[in-house]
Amino acid sequence: MHNVAITGTGVFTPAQTITNDELVAAFNAHADLFNAQNTDAITAGTIDEKPHSSSEFIAAASGIEQRYVMDKAGVLDPARMYPRLAERADDAPSIMAEMAVDAARTALNGKNPASVDLVLCAASNHERAYPAIAVEIQQLLGTSGFAFDMNVACSSATFGIQTAADMIRAGSIKSALVVCPEICSAHLEWRDRDCHFIFGDVATAVLLERDENLQAPYFKVKSTRCATQFSNNIRNNNGFLRRTHDQMNDRRDMQFMQNGRKVFKEVLPLVSKHIADHMEAEGVQAADLKRLWLHQANKTMNDHIGKRVLGRDPEPGEQPNILQDYANTSSAGSIIAFSKHSDDLIAGDMGLICSFGAGYSVGSVIVERA
Q: Do residues 95 and 64 make contact, with C-beta atoms less than 8 angstroms apart?
């Protein structure tokens, strides 16, 4: 058995941002347009009037202040309310592959891509069913070996890390890139007040290598653990980026849906117990953890999980949030937090990466600074 290390991370951040105020102005204009077009049905009680949103509501519900997106104009068009992502020719790089390659090159930090044995593209919604986005990324980067896609919703990154780490431990590969290109804006229902603010776009990459003759600093992967439990409380029946006219107007269930109250009630204890069990199995105490890098879905939820794991309120910086800047970026959130808030740790410091979401799914990775 071989030891595993995280030797690099990368984050691709889109150039365009949408603030809460901008989003609320567009949503409220959309709500007014909808209500005006459906006055008779609303009066008859067959359709509910769409209420306005507010920046105060969004901040209180989520902790989000802005989000990065691949297309701002389409999302903020009150008559449209979803991004315009142009279809590309079959011989042109896909959007997801383009995003992932940018993040992967940062994670490689000058290393020869040909030395990478595996590319694993782990994301919530893939741009197409096949050929695999990961194989396209492999070609664009010039990596060797093989590649494949994985979807475990918001837990895709940690599940991908465990999959790649297991292969490295077993000796079938020496290195892997786990990339998470998330175009969440394309599967979000921007016209629903309860969720229109949740998601943003981003791509992350994690480079894992066999822990042999490496030069510090890097992170040792001490242990990984994954778990799933079926639930319909977070669901997307479409799963791809294109919307037809019928799907856009008649099939609310074809885009992101969640029962937020049930998710909070059920996921919170599930995640807390998963982390506690993982730590106990590895002999890790709460006092041993210098950092928690949690899935960036909801600030209140993360605060509760951090308090349960540590047995106290997390100190400033102990459980970093990037939610206010990036919003929920599905599988990429915990990796953004790890990438941006880990350089200050010193040799021997331990931390835990955890992601969780639809499925339900939860994955955790215990790491130690080398």
A: no
CA–CA dist 21, 192 (Å, integer): 16
> Which of 121, 154, 180, 354 is the catalytic position?
154
CATH superfamily of 219-369: Thiolase/Chalcone synthase (3.40.47.10)
CB 54 within 8 A of CB 26: no
Which residues have C-beta within 8 Å of that of residue 290, sequence separation ≥ 6? 318, 345, 349, 350, 351
154 tagged catalytic? yes
Q: Collapsing DSSP states into helix, strand and coil, what is residue 354?
A: strand
Answer whether residue 242 shows pLDDT above 70: no
Q: Do 178 and 4 contact (CB within 8 A), yes or no?
A: no
Q: Give the per-residue pLDDT at 365.
A: 98
Question: What pLDDT is stored for residue 357 in this prediction?
Answer: 87
Q: At residue 226, does pLDDT exceed 50?
A: yes
Q: Please, which residues have CB within 8 angstroms of residue 20's CB and are 6 or more apart in sequence?
A: 55, 58, 59, 64, 65, 66, 197
